[in-house]
Amino acid sequence: MPELPEVETVRRTLTQLIVGKTIQSVEVYLPRIIQRPDDIKRFETELAGHTIVEIGRRGKFLRIVMDGLVLVSHLRMEGRYGVYRTGDEVEKHTHVIFRFTDGTELRYKDVRQFGTMHLFAPGEEFKQKPLAKLGLEPLDASFTEAAFLEAISRRTTKIKPALLNQEYIVGLGNIYVDEALFRAGIHPEHPADKLTKRQLERLHAAIVDTLTEAVEAGGSSIKSYVNGQGEMGMFQHSLRMYGRQGEPCLNCGQPVVKTVVGGRGTHFCPTCQPPYRTSQKARQQRNGRQG
Ligand SMILES: [Zn+2]
C-alpha cells in the first residue's frame, strides 16, 4: 500500500504530466471506484471541460484540483495512474479514463479495485469524508514537536497503532511506522501514553527524517517513471527495518524480529527497541544508582 512518500511522488509526477491539460471526456468502466457523486454519468459529464490547475495531497489522498472542481483520489493497495496517447492499447484493469483535449489521456488502473475517487466543489472536500477527520500532516510546517506531543502523548493504545491512526497523523503506514520506531529506538508495543517527552521528541524527528528521505528517494526516481510509459506508482526505498526479519540489525547486528502488533506484521530489533517494562526497569536502576 502506498504511504506518504509514494503518494507524494505520484503527486509530483502528475504535476509534471497533467497540470494545464483540459479534460474533454471521462469514461468509467468500474462504477464502484467512484464514491461521489452516486451517479456515474454525472461524474463523467461534470468533469468534461475542466482544466487541471494543481495536484495536491492530504495524507495518502491525492487532490486533483481543477477550475471549479476537486477530485480526491486514493490508490489503496494497487492503484496506478498512467498517461497515454489516445489510441494506445487499453490495458487490463483500466477502470477510469480521463481524455484530454491534446490527444493524451490519464488512465487509472487498479488490479485489486480498492481505490476510490470523490468529486467535490473546491473547499468542500475538507469538510466531508474521506478528508474531514484527518490528523496532522507530518511534512507540513504545522507538524511541530508540540503538535505531535498533543496528538500522541495521551493515547492509551500501543504506539504503533497510534501512529497508524490517520485521525492523529496522516501518511504513515506499516512500512514507515516500523522505520521511524526503529530510528527512535522505541518498541512498537510501547504504550503511547507512557513514552517520555524525550522519546516522543526522538520519534517526532525520526518520522520527519524517515519520510523526508523517502520522498527525496522517490523524487530522484521520477524521471525514469516519466520517461517510461508515463506510469507511476510504488517503488522500493532502501529500508532499514521493514521486510528484514532474520537479517542483522544495521545498528547492533542482532537479528531483526518479525511479530504482529495490532494485526499488522511488525519488524523491530529487540536490543535497540527494548520492550516498555525492560526499558522502564533499566531507567529505574539508572535513577537508583544516581540517587
Ligand atoms: Zn539493533
From TrEMBL:
Pfam families: Fapy_DNA_glyco (PF01149), H2TH (PF06831), zf-FPG_IleRS (PF06827). Its cofactor is Zn(2+). PROSITE patterns: FPG_CAT, ZF_FPG_1, ZF_FPG_2. Its EC number is 3.2.2.23, 4.2.99.18. SUPFAM superfamilies: Glucocorticoid receptor-like (DNA-binding domain), N-terminal domain of MutM-like DNA repair proteins, S13-like H2TH domain. Residues 240-274 form the FPG-type domain. The active site is at residues 2-3, 60, 264. Residues 2-115 form the Formamidopyrimidine-DNA glycosylase catalytic domain. It catalyses: 2'-deoxyribonucleotide-(2'-deoxyribose 5'-phosphate)-2'-deoxyribonucleotide-DNA = a 3'-end 2'-deoxyribonucleotide-(2,3-dehydro-2,3-deoxyribose 5'-phosphate)-DNA + a 5'-end 5'-phospho-2'-deoxyribonucleoside-DNA + H(+); Hydrolysis of DNA containing ring-opened 7-methylguanine residues, releasing 2,6-diamino-4-hydroxy-5-(N-methyl)formamidopyrimidine. Binds 1 zinc ion per subunit. Signal peptide: none annotated. The keyword DNA repair applies. Keywords: DNA damage, DNA repair, DNA-binding, Glycosidase, Hydrolase, Lyase, Metal-binding, Multifunctional enzyme, Zinc, Zinc-finger. DNA binds at residues 93, 112, 155. GO terms for molecular function: oxidized purine nucleobase lesion DNA N-glycosylase activity. Involved in base excision repair of DNA damaged by oxidation or by mutagenic agents. Acts as DNA glycosylase that recognizes and removes damaged bases. Has a preference for oxidized purines, such as 7,8-dihydro-8-oxoguanine (8-oxoG). Has AP (apurinic/apyrimidinic) lyase activity and introduces nicks in the DNA strand. Cleaves the DNA backbone by beta-delta elimination to generate a single-strand break at the site of the removed base with both 3'- and 5'-phosphates. Monomer. Belongs to the FPG family. This is Formamidopyrimidine-DNA glycosylase. It comes from Paenibacillus timonensis.
